[in-house]
UniProtKB/TrEMBL annotation:
The active site is at residues 279, 363. Contains 1 topaquinone per subunit. Residues 5-89 form the Copper amine oxidase N2-terminal domain. Residues 207-619 form the Copper amine oxidase catalytic domain. The modification 2',4',5'-topaquinone is found at residue 363. Its EC number is 1.4.3.-. It is an enzyme of class 1 (oxidoreductase). Keywords: Copper, Metal-binding, Oxidoreductase, TPQ. It comes from Talaromyces atroroseus. Coiled coil: none annotated. One of its GO terms (biological process) is amine metabolic process. Its cofactor is Cu cation. This is Amine oxidase.
Length: 628
């Protein structure tokens, strides 16, 4: 059998092999709970050597697991090629593994079955036939919107013993005071399920038809479309990952992925002050991926790609149809009308979309890589789903939230995402990050006699660290290859990072929100690539590969373990292998229109060529007609 490409995700057999080898060293009678089994990627240097010599590299698995019923949490590197354990280290006790599906379901069942919880629910005197739903933070209709009926009871569960340790009560007024449980008052439902609503009837069908099929091809992990070629893989934490991205056979990016996401909430009262989700680190974009065949999530001629992860027993688990690949029309790409001849040249913008949708409890995130015919790569996130709600007394308002329904408070919060970009522009791993600003040229009777002139200033970032946008200077960050120049103007080839306005984390630097969100205080971080620091054969665990902006373990973590630490090394990055971390997100001040389900909020980060090509790379796209 031909050897697998070094970046190919683990196979079913490899997942079984990895979990079996771990069980063998601990004994079959030791009960384990696996939290993640995925490819332990070879270093970038090793992969670059593989490209030159095609010598197979050892296949390795990264494994996280608990000894069931104990707080003992381990991280291992398993060499699948030699069937050996390269490392098996206990993770420090202040770190915790992510939640998994079965654990969350079991926690809900245990909480609702607990006699103390049932006694508290009795005090609320709920309507006859009401169903109580437990919403773990890490109704008469099964799909009824329980977020429209938040209760003031908050049980705390120990996930080691799987027992309720205490019951907390939530403040429901304007202050910090806790009231004893009282009978709930009748509240009108606020539903989102179609059959529970009256639907509009004036909508005509809109169909996307591609009679000759799509213009892309998929061969294993390799996707080819127009002049693009890349590898598309899937893992339990990041979900989709792009590797070895090239355009017209010119390398652009070695690896691109959504690295992390944090959602800190603004209510300062206990226990709400702890409310901060890390949707990738606490659960996983792969673990929570939807089956996209279940709805109208993608249109046109669609290719569905399954994702493979491991379940809590260490067995392979398929996430069917976790990625959909399709083309879409995005309006005009370019146009010009010669007004003298009335001749119009028109090219429509066809995009290739790689989409995955995750459901993290109440929220949905529609995550997509979008590529176009002008050599541009965009990462798009759409936030939808249901607001995380809490109870509030009638007639009460608070300065950190919005009442979106009778008795329902939606607290202000931020969605801060981090996109990790590992560049290799035009085939060189030694790149640099620069920023360019537009500045007015001072009035000068000779140089600028009319005061209208302005120019740009370019600054090369010499030291790793965190950097910010500045709209008043039109500051734009670019990844640049100083060893390759454009033949037209002699400028260094580059890709600019187009980021929407970003408000960094608002929580105080003394808060745990800040200390845990190791990436949320700057729009841009740049760090030296670990392959340029660590030995190429390093079997470092945890943050050895420096893949996750918030660090390897975000669940209840109180320490700085991510990109703020790595960039804080103050490495010389003026011309070396770098990693660029782009933060973007939403400042979500909920409105009534966001309930019961919020219309999608869209945010995009685009990577666009700057002096990379000799002309508009989409100039050769055939002109559009009504039939094409």
């Amino acid at each position: 059998m031909a050897s697998l490409h070094p970046l190919t995700a683990l196979t079913e057999d490899e997942i079984v092999q990895a979990s079996s080898l771990i069980r063998a060293i601990l004994g079959e009678k030791t009960n384990l709970r696996f939290k993640g089994i995925s490819l332990h990627e070879p270093s970038k240097r090793e992969v670059l050597k593989y490209r030159e010599h095609s010598q197979p590299l050892p296949r390795k698995a990264w494994v996280n697991y608990y000894v069931t019923g104990t707080p003992l949490f381990y991280e291992s590197i398993v060499n699948l090629s030699s069937s050996t354990i390269e490392s098996n280290k206990q993770v420090p006790t202040h770190f915790h593994g992510p939640c998994d599906d079965e654990e969350i379901t079991r926690a809900e069942e245990i909480v609702l079955a607990d006699p103390r919880v049932q006694a508290e629910i009795e005090k609320l005197e709920l309507p006859k036939g009401a169903t109580v739903v437990c919403d773990p933070w890490i109704c008469n209709q099964p799909d009824s919107n329980h977020y429209a009926f938040p209760l003031s009871v908050c049980p705390v569960l120990d996930t080691v013993t799987m027992k309720v340790t205490r019951i907390e009560y939530l403040p429901t007024g304007a202050g910090w005071e806790i009231k004893p449980p009282q009978p709930v008052r009748a509240i009108e439902p606020n539903e989102y399920i179609p059959e529970l609503n009256t639907l509009r009837k004036d909508l005509k069908p809109l169909r996307v038809i591609q009679p000759e099929g799509a213009s892309f091809t998929v061969s294993g992990d390799v996707v080819r479309w127009q002049k693009w070629e890349f590898r598309l893989t899937f893992n339990y934490r990041e979900g989709m990952v792009l590797h070895e991205v090239s355009y017209d056979k010119r390398p652009l990016f070695y690896r691109v992925s959504l690295s992390d996401m944090t959602v800190p909430y603004a209510d300062p009262r206990a226990p709400f002050h702890k409310k901060q989700a890390f949707d990738l680190g606490d659960t996983g974009a792969g673990l929570t991926a939807n089956d996209l065949r279940l709805g109208c999530d993608c249109l046109g001629s669609i290719y569905y790609k399954d994702g493979l992860i491991a379940n809590e027993e260490g067995h392979p688990k398929w996430k069917r149809n976790a990625i959909c690949i399709h083309e879409q029309d995005a309006g005009l790409l370019w146009k010009h009308t010669n007004y003298r001849t009335n001749r119009a040249a028109v090219v429509r913008n066809r995009e290739l979309v790689l989409q995955s949708i995750i459901t993290v409890s109440n929220y949905e995130y529609i995550l997509a890589f979008v590529l176009n015919q002008a050599g541009e790569l965009t990462y798009e996130a759409r936030a939808t789903g249901i607001l995380s709600t809490q109870p509030i007394d009638e007639g009460v308002s608070v300065p950190w939230g919005t009442v979106v329904h009778d008795g329902v408070l939606a607290v202000y919060h931020q969605h801060i995402l981090s996109l990790r970009i590992d560049p290799e522009l035009d085939g060189d791993v030694n790149n640099r990050l620069i920023y360019e600003e537009a500045h007015a040229i001072p009035y000068d009777p000779k140089l600028n006699p009319h005061g209208n002139a302005y120019t740009t200033n370019k600054s090369v970032i010499q030291i790793s660290g965190g950097y910010d946008l500045d709209s008043k200077k039109s500051r734009v960050f670019m990844i640049e290859n100083a060893h390759k120049q454009n033949p037209v103007n002699g400028k260094n080839v580059a890709y600019k990072i187009q980021v929407p306005p970003f408000q960094p984390l608002l929580a105080s630097s003394e808060s745990f929100h800040y200390k845990r969100a190791d990436f949320a205080d700057h729009a841009i971080y740049v760090s030296k690539h670990p392959s340029a620091i660590l030995p190429a054969t390093s079997s470092s665990v945890g943050d050895g590969h420096e893949l996750f902006a918030g660090g390897q373990y975000t669940n209840q973590n109180r320490l700085t373990t991510g990109v703020r630490k790595w960039a804080g090394r103050k490495d010389d990055i003026s011309d070396t292998d770098i990693v660029v971390w782009v933060q973007f997100g939403l400042q979500h001040i909920p409105r009534v229109e966001d309930f019961p389900v919020m219309p999608a909020e869209i945010i995009r980060v685009s990577l666009k060529p700057v002096n990379f090509f000799t002309k508009n790379p989409a100039i050769d796209v055939p002109p559009s007609t009504r039939t094409r």
